[in-house]
Each structure stands twice: as C-alpha cells, then as structure tokens.
Description:
The chain is mainly α. The protein is built from 23 helices and four strands.
Amino acid sequence: MITVLLNWLYIAITSFGTGIAVLSFFSFIFGIKKTHNVLPAIIAGLAFNTVYSETFSLFGGVGIAANVILVLLALAGAFFNRTSVSQTFTALKEKVLSVKVLPYIYAAVILLFAYGTSRGYIHYDTSLYHAQSIRWIEEYGVVKGLACLQLRFGYNSSAFALTALYSFVDILGQSLHTTAGFFVLLGAIQVVDVYRVFTKKHVRHSDFIRIGLLFYLGLIFKEIVSPASDYYAQILIFTAVIMWLDAIEDTEDDPNAKAYPFAMLSILLVYAATVKFSIALLVLLVIKPAIMLIKDKKYKQIAVCLGAGICVLLPFFIRNVLISGWLIYPSTFIDLFNVDWKIPKGVAQYDAMEIGVYGKAINDVTKLDMPITEWLPGWFRAMSLVEKGWVSLTFIGIIAGVVYFGYKLIKRRADYDKLLVFIVIVASGLFWFFSAPLVRYGYGYLTCIPLFVDGMLCMELVKKTDDKKALYIAYVIVFAAVGIYRIKTVGYDIITTLDQPYYIAQEDYENWPAKEYDLEGHTIFVPEQDALIGYSQFPASLMLIDIEMRGDDWKDGFRYKDYDAWLERSGVSE
C-alpha cells in the first residue's frame, strides 16, 4: 500500500508537470488566459505521458531511461509555466479549504483506493495476457509480430504502455501496476465534487453522471489491482461526459474560451480511443468544437487540434502494425500492409468472431450472425439482477430521450448541445450492444445514458416549476442510496482482504503452472491451466506449433510459419 501511495505521488507530479505545459500551450494557441485546475492538468498529463511511453517503446524498452527523460520534461513543463502552476495550486488550496471537512474526505478517498489498488482480485485477462504485454513493453518496447506469439497481444491498449512506464520494475524488482487504480482515484475525486450539491444546494446535470460513476467505482473496487484496459476506458467515458456537461453550463464571454474546453475534451476522447478502440465513436463529439472554430474562422486552432489528434493516434497505430500487421486488430476492414509478421486475415476474422459471440453469451462462433431475437433472451438471463436493472433503464432512457428531443425539435426549442451528447453516447452504446455486448465493456453507457436522460428531464421540470429544493432533496436521496449500497459492498471487500500482507508492497501478478518448450534454441513457456500464465514466466505462448522467430533474438519478432496447416486444423476459411 505504501508503494502504491509513493508511486501515485510520482505519477501525479510527473503528470501535472507535463499536463500543465500541455494546457498552457493550448491556452496560448486559443489566445486565452486561464487558471487551470489540478485534475484536468493531471488528466492531460496522463494522456501526454501515455503517448510519450508509446513513442519511446518504438525504440526500446520502457524503463529507467524513459523515466529520466519524463522527469526532465515534467520539470521543464512546470518551470516554464511556473506562473500557471502557482495560480493552479492557489485555486486548489482555496477549493480544499472552502469546506472544513473536505481535506479529510480527500485524504480518506486516497487511502481507500490505495488500499484497493494494493490488493484484490487479479483479473483473468491480466493473467492471460495483460501482464505479459506489459513485460514485453518494459523489456523490448514493441516487437514485430508479437501477436503471432499470442493473438491477444494484438489487442494493443495504450494503457499497457503507461503501466510499463510507471512499473518501476528496474528499481523495485517488482512490476507495479497502479495506473488503473490511479485513474479510478481521479474518478473518485470527481465524485467528491458532489460536495457542491450539499453546500450550495444546487444540482448540475453532470452530478447525475457522478451517481453512475459512484456506482461503477464501488463495482470495480476489488479489481483495480489489475491493469485491465476496461477500467481506464470506462473512467475516461465518465470523465469526458461530466466535463463536457460542465463546459456546456459554464458560459464564457470570449468565443475562444467557449471552444477551448470542448477542443481539449475532444483530444482526450481521441486518447480514450487508444486505450480501447471500441469507444472511438465518442470522438464524434468533436462536431461541436469543429463547428464553433469553423464558424469563427479559427483555422490555426483547428490545425493545431488536428495535429494533436494525429500525434495521439500515430504511435498507437504504428504499434498496432508492428505487433499484428493490422492497423486496428482484429478488424480486417482496413487492410493496408503486407508484412511477413502479419496475422493472417482468416485468423483475425476468427478472433473477432470469438469476441462477438462471447459478448453475446454464446459459445459457438458459427452462431455469430444469430438474430437478435434469439441471442438477446439468453444474454439477458445470464446477467445479475443489478445488471438487468441498468440494461432496462438504458433502453427506457433511450426511448424517453428520443421522445423528449423529438418533441423539442418539433417545437424548435431543442438544446442542440445536449442533443449531440445524447446522440453520440447512444450511438456508441448501440455499437457496443451490437458488436460485443459484454456488460463490463459497457458500464459507461449503461449508466451514463439513463442518468443523462433522467438529469435532463429533472432539469426541465425544475425550469417549469422553479422548485429547485425538490430536485435537491430527490438527488440527495438517490445519491445517498447508491452511496450506502456501495459502502456496503466496498466494506465487504475490505473486510475480506484485511489479513492480506500488502500494507507495504503491492500484491504481485499471479503466476500459473507452465511447461518449458524450446523455440529455435530459446526457452518459452506454455501455460498448463486455462491459458493463464501471469508475469514471471516470460515469454509465453499458446500456439508454438504455428510460429517461428524472425531472427536470432526475441526483439526480432515472430511470424506464422505454416498458415495453411493452421487453416486446415481450425476449420477457418478466408
């Protein structure tokens, strides 16, 4: 737990240093003077540091050297923007001390989630491939054809590069995996911002989304010890929607200042797509700042934002191509590269089909195209009662939202900013539903959609009745109910792990039984139990019979040696 806190302190300092530089640069480009808050600066820094670690991985392992350069970048960022740093911490001090109990709440939240990050349930996929992916980045950076060694390595997530950057394995001898917990901590801090509701008795639209975030934080508390990309992605969905709604309500006189937060959040959503590409449709929110900037003929700002988006995507796509030969694995829709380490098209398509049927609670790949009327009942039955509740509320929310906005459009009184948010999150949610609707991939949609619509209808009712007190009371009751429910589940998670010895060091990755095999004179491990391997037994593969090395060393990469034989055995057709 102590190592988690120290690691988080380092993550916060380096992320703030680079993040304040990023925000100051864009403030300059937009021609505005703005006092930045600590949370957006850290989030911007995390995005920058992730892109940095991905870029560094293209040239070698991400370890001590990468961190030395990162520290220099963070120091330079803070030094050259020291006025902004001073203003930011002054604003933070005023905020924290504005309510006497607030510093203690923040301290309790930090300790609570540091505890959850120090121990818990190591996710199945972490032992399957997350840990191995991170170790490859730590030691080699990126390796051509790594997905040939295990197909799941092709699910390249930028979150793994960030975890490798902050793992400290070269210093501690243990690879820390605290970044998922740090993202969750940032989500928890956003929930704490609900204190405004209690002190000012004023509810904002974003506060409804915070209820969903509170629910989600309690749900994953026992699992945040694992660096699973799902957690990063869902937290980023909540964060983007909350900040977007706040930006809509925070009116600015300067047109540049109005466009600035939406442009920044659009770049954040591009970054979120590199964490988990399945949420890429959320980037459609860029329509709003694009219209604003085009309307005001701000071509310099448009060019800079487009350049920033390309810079975020470029190392991600390069890593994809080097790892699997595909721009977006396992999708074969874009087929641009003919390299010897490329995952064969039939293999990629089969992998994509497995993901789709698994999300629909089907075990037979041949039933991927089963009509929705046939797979939906089984998918719904397989859920817990709480999951069924959120799914039902989401479908009700979509219908209610369509009716509401349809009525408003007919009356020509629609709030187009809110309409855009509704369309984008629903479109992204439907994409999840019809592609791979595994519930843990979609909690951001299953909570944001109904709570967004509910908040919108409640705010509309307040406008008509001018009864803000009733809204405040109703909100407090719902927030308290969700909070009490989650306190109960988190309390149970804590009680059942109190005897675990992780008060100083973090719980390490799990290790699973494996056999040693020879691959062209090199030792490689093959798991014996459910394809689980962990971190220490490295490198590992599941399909030695089909792969060969591209050179004399691991860093030279891998490729399939007999694709036709694989097709014959698997029954897959091109």
